[in-house]
């Protein structure tokens, strides 16, 4: 099956985006570690010292470049093609984490990388052609259809529950809480980015969409979703191992985005059953690859869900799940000391 020019442009931009974003995970985490070592307060526990750390800002710039490329990619290609290519960012972050953060990537992880790439290729080959959109009002009609409004309401309810109820209770012991918030908001941000990118593309083609209120509304939704995503992504990266955060975030984010895109933009309308099955098989291959990458992480379950380099002792584990803040505070101080020593040994000034 041939690839259209627009899909090819979106494919190339998505690859570039994934490379930058994958690198930004590592750069930002190194910045978060430095900031925690200097200030003594981690971002995962409410610290904002990373805002004064140049390395963290370099990671932010790298991520912004990747997000801009991703933004433009959505203007050319459907979300069902662009979003799964984020698997490359997992590969980039896993490889860089292996060399720069000493989070080892074993042979099983390499197999996971191969599966992610293979699945992405299958998805690209069988990606659907988009229906022509002549105005942002067409997208608004899609966004206000009953099926998508139901999805939107479900996402808002889940995010509120995660932020107000689950995050204070188990956000620092269960990786799914912070990444779940990021992923749910991410699916909405992609739909808004797609709408805004299409509106800007039409504007550059001579069909001014800036005169419509819907364009500015989508811009507001993008800004709101991205701010929430960045806040909780910082918490996830600082609290848990990068090799855990990256694949779990990718799996949840991609799954939810594809569901949202199929509901809102009706990506599968007009496609034959064989192409849809091929896309699903490619997506499953990518998911399996991310699971293998997660399985290959060089630490046990306890350290994975705590986000540190050593397994939890029974006493500390009991303290965490029973809400013993004094035990948690004492453990955090010890962890900061170890991080500080590692930073001084590995990163001489």
From TrEMBL:
GO CC term, one of those recorded: plasma membrane
Predominant location: membrane
Segments passing through the bilayer: 6-27, 48-65, 71-96, 108-128, 148-168, 175-196, 216-233, 240-264, 276-296
Membrane association type: Multi-pass membrane protein
Pfam families attached to this UniProt entry: Mg_trans_NIPA
One of the record's GO molecular function terms: magnesium ion transmembrane transporter activity
Key words of the record: Cell membrane, Endosome, Ion transport, Magnesium, Membrane, Transmembrane, Transmembrane helix, Transport
Signal peptide as annotated in the record: none
Subcellular location: Cell membrane; Early endosome
Family membership: Belongs to the NIPA (TC 2.A.7) family.
Assembly and oligomerization: Homodimer.
Function (record text): Acts as a Mg(2+) transporter. Can also transport other divalent cations such as Fe(2+), Sr(2+), Ba(2+), Mn(2+) and Co(2+) but to a much less extent than Mg(2+).
Protein known as: Probable magnesium transporter
Native source species: Gossypium harknessii
């Amino acid at each position: 099956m041939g690839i259209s020019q627009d899909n090819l442009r979106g494919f190339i931009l998505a690859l570039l985006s994934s490379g930058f974003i994958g690198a930004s995970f590592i750069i930002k985490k190194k910045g978060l570690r430095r900031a925690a070592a200097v200030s003594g307060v981690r971002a995962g526990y409410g610290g904002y010292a990373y805002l004064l750390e140049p390395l963290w800002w370099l990671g932010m710039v790298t991520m912004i470049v990747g997000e801009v490329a991703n933004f433009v990619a959505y203007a050319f290609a459907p979300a069902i093609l662009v979003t799964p290519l984020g698997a490359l960012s997992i590969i980039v972050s896993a490889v860089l984490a292996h060399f720069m953060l000493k989070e080892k990537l074993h042979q099983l992880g390499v197999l996971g990388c191969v599966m992610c790439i293979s699945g992405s290729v299958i998805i690209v080959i069988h990606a659907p052609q988009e229906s022509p959109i002549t105005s942002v009002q067409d997208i608004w009609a899609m966004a206000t259809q009953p099926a998508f409004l139901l999805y939107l309401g479900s996402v808002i309810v889940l995010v509120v529950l995660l932020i107000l109820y689950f995050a204070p209770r188990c956000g620092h012991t269960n990786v799914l809480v912070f990444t779940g918030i990021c992923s749910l908001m991410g699916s909405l941000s992609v739909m808004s980015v797609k709408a805004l990118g299409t509106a800007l593309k039409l504007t550059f083609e001579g069909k001014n969409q800036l005169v419509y209120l819907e364009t500015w509304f989508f811009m507001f939704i993008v800004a709101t979703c991205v701010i929430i995503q960045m806040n909780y992504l910082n918490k996830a990266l600082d609290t848990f191992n990068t090799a855990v955060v990256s694949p779990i975030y990718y799996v949840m984010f991609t799954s939810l985005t594809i569901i949202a895109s199929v509901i809102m933009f009706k990506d599968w309308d007009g496609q034959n059953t064989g192409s849809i099955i091929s896309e699903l098989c490619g997506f499953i291959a990518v998911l399996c690859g991310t699971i293998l990458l997660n399985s290959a992480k060089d630490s046990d379950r306890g350290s994975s869900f705590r986000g540190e380099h050593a397994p939890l002792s029974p006493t500390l584990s009991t303290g965490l799940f029973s809400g013993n803040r004094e035990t948690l505070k004492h453990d955090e101080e010890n962890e900061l000391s170890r991080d500080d020593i590692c930073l001084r040994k590995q990163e001489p000034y």
